[in-house]
Amino acid sequence: MTIDVLIADDQAMVRAGFGALLDAHEGIRVTGQAANGAEAVKLSARLDPDVILMDVRMPELDGIEATKRILGPSYPAAKVPRIIMLTTFDIDDYVYDALQAGASGFLLKDALPEDLVHAVRVVAAGDALLAPSVTRRMIAQFAAQKPRASHGAARLAELTEREREVLVLIGHGRSNSEIAATLFIAEQTVKTHVGKVLAKVGARDRVQAVIFAYDTGLVAPS
């Protein structure tokens, strides 16, 4: 299956470079480019991309607001895309807010070419881009600065003890295989627990689960 990608960045050279790189890989096709957030919202609704590379800071409409609109309930397109936030710096409060809005991860603009391609494939497959440890560090840092979410307590109470253990390990960035080894259970069992955790806490993916774990205080920033 071909992965359709929309690139949203106010720098023409960045759009051209990322576009050429992605188009050169089998199974990935860049279907559109946007120079600002407002254009990204319009093109996303018209082109129905699988993945959007979204710059955080853009004129007219920044990346976080564009992400909120694209992933909001009034989004008119046939399918909801996965969004990867692009940022120049590894710590950016805009990125944390974008992750809360439903973005599937973030990538530094100076990342290696293979990392960009990998990121597109990962989120297109429905996974969250949590591999870089800086993602967890960023979430922890900004979660510590924000008031603890009281609305999450009821959802947290719905989890079984085992599901809470799994959520804690997700919050620490552990993979399914690592969780299985830690809890001495089968990886397939972990996948079942993860699915139940995401459903009960209302998370779209593991990034959302990590944010929930920090926001509710289940995992403390270190």
CA radius of gyration is 17 Å
Give the fraction of residues assigned to helices.
40-55%
How many strand elements? 5
Report on the biggest sheet: 5 strands, parallel
Supply the helix-strand structural class: alpha/beta
Distance between the termini: 41 Å
CATH domain fold name of the largest domain = Rossmann fold
Given the C-alpha coordinates, what overall shape results?
Answer: globular
Proportion of strand residues: 5-15%
Low-confidence stretches: none
CATH-level-2 architecture of the largest domain: 3-Layer(aba) Sandwich
The chain-level mean pLDDT equals: 85
Task: Name the CATH superfamily classification of the largest domain.
Answer: Response regulator
Total domains: 2
Strand order of the largest sheet: 2-1-3-4-5
For the record, the CATH class of the largest domain is: Alpha Beta
Q: Write the H/E string, N to C.
A: EHEHEHEHEHHHHHHH
Annotation field: number of helices: 11
How would you describe what is shown here?
The protein has a five-stranded parallel sheet, with helices on both faces. The protein has 222 residues and is an alpha/beta fold. Helix 1 (12-23) links the parallel strand 1 and strand 2 (28-34). The protein is built from eleven helices and five strands.
Lay out the secondary structure.
Blueprint: E1 3-8, H1 12-23, E2 28-34, H2 37-47, E3 51-55, H3 63-70, E4 82-87, H4 93-101, E5 105-108, H5 113-124, H6 133-145, H7 152-157, H8 161-171, H9 176-183, H10 187-201, H11 206-215
